[in-house]
Design goal:
With 171 residues, the chain is mostly helical. The protein has five helices and no strands. The chain is elongated.
């Protein structure tokens, strides 16, 4: 039996669905970050496609930043959630679980950002902050926390998919 005996439409639904959720998340996330600290994108990211409008630039970065992680996570979820002989996790369940993980990631980032904003202090070592103004301390704390939380949430999500596929215990 092949590792993945799945219809193409289901494979595309999982991979593109997870990438779409990732892109939507990145888009919303970067739109509030660009309003908090436009220089996060205009000064501390390299120019992208000749775009000078900060919100449009943030959107372009969201698109670019979502492709790799979204597609890789989609493929990993497809194999973990639907590959092999064990019972398959329904596509809707997979997408809802992933969306919940994105929500947890963003709440973590917002918590870190709120702490940095209200205390005026860095959450991580100062060396990884491009400058120590309140907007950039806040935006960088949000970003770093989202990267860390997103990694943990992704691993938890894949483990959840794997465990969800476990056959029912025999009685």
């Amino acid at each position: 039996m092949p590792l993945l005996a799945e219809r193409r439409s289901v494979s595309y639904a999982v991979i593109l669905g997870i990438w779409g959720l990732t892109f939507g998340y990145c888009l919303l996330h970067d739109q509030y970050l660009v309003r908090l600290a436009p220089e996060h994108f205009t000064v501390y990211h390299p120019p992208l496609w000749g775009i000078e409008n900060p919100p449009l630039l943030a959107s372009a970065w969201a698109f670019r930043a979502s492709i790799g992680p979204g597609m890789i996570m989609g493929m990993a979820a497809l194999f973990v959630g639907r590959g092999g002989r064990r019972p398959k996790v329904p596509v809707k369940t997979m997408l809802k679980g992933y969306a919940l993980g994105l929500l947890v990631t963003e709440i973590s980032g917002l918590g870190a950002g709120a702490w940095s904003w209200f205390t005026g202090r860095t959450l991580y070592p100062e060396i990884i902050y491009p400058e120590l103004t309140r907007p950039l301390i806040t935006s960088q704390s949000i970003q770093l926390t989202c990267y860390l939380a997103g990694t943990v949430v992704a691993v938890v999500y894949l483990v959840w998919l794997w465990r969800r596929r476990a056959p029912a215990p025999r009685t």
